[in-house]
Write a structure and sequence with these properties.
By secondary structure, this protein is an alpha/beta fold. It is 51% helix and 9% strand. It has three domains: 2-49, Arc Repressor Mutant, subunit A (Orthogonal Bundle), CATH 1.10.10; 70-109; 126-175 and 189-341, Nucleotidyltransferase, domain 5 (2-Layer Sandwich). The protein is built from 15 helices and five strands.
Amino acid sequence: MNKIEYRSVIKFLFKEGNNAQQIKVRMDNVYGDSSPSYSTIKEWIKQFKLGRESVFDEPRAGRPTEVVNTDTIALVEEIVLEDRRLKTKEIAARLDISKTSILRILHDHLHMNKISARWVPKLLSAVQKKQRVECCKEFLKLCHEKEKEVIESIVTGDETMVLYYDPLAKRESMEWRRPDEPRPKKAKVAHSRKKIMATIFWDSEGILMIDFKERNTTVNGPYYASLLYKLREAIKEKRRGKLSKGVLLLHDNAPVHCAPDPKAAVSKCGFKELNHPPYSPDLAPSDYFLFSKLKSDLRGKKFKSDEELQEAVLEHFKDKTSEYFYNGIEMLIKRCEKCVKIKGEYIEK
């Protein structure tokens, strides 16, 4: 608004009877270096002599019309809601306005950003979301007065495939480089087809048992039941008094876990199963915590044999403290709270 202020002062001093030189001196005394030039003062005195009264700029002929208006914003919104995958250049071509104007409308007026879809294990139905909320509430109620006791009594586990070679993701292969150093190159490599299946059971103190499935054997009800009996022996050997206090077994609803033989084994072992909602790896400590960290540690390393890969899996857990495992199970409480809050939707990482 400075130029409008200067023009108003020039107009006032001119009407007071001052000439251009006098106006220049007076304005320099007040505004100093920011005062308008002598030629600017002369030009505005000339305009006022010709009868001009306004100190504002007059509309210029051929000045472009503002395309970002209410009508255009509404049109952009309508087009985007019809097809949310449209590119900005396609919207611009359809409305015959610049891509920059489209971006302004999308960001500044419609407050929209283009984001990629989030991959989820399954598109949950309303019934499944309700099941997730109910299971979470049930668990939170159990933890309400005896949180530490519940966490310490939980034994959890699941099966996972471990690859001979799992290449680093692009983000994981980032390196620190100086501006004058060449950018590193990395050929795209596929996952190895060779792999082993590991079934890992653990609690708040550490690993209880790791079973590596033999090749050409089937994971079925009897096989998983045999693992549960082995688990009981491992608890008896490694956690004295835990069986008498009561074991809360947390595993998912995979068909092999729900078969008659495993159900009978759970009962014979004296375990009590915690309810776990279907299609919910985000509520399974092995999936959201243990396996993800294990595979992150092994990613980028190449193994030549089953024995070498098995040794790497065992080595990964050797330096992990009881606090590490306790935190992994304790995280389930916050995840359940969040699941309830977002009404059964999947929990983002």
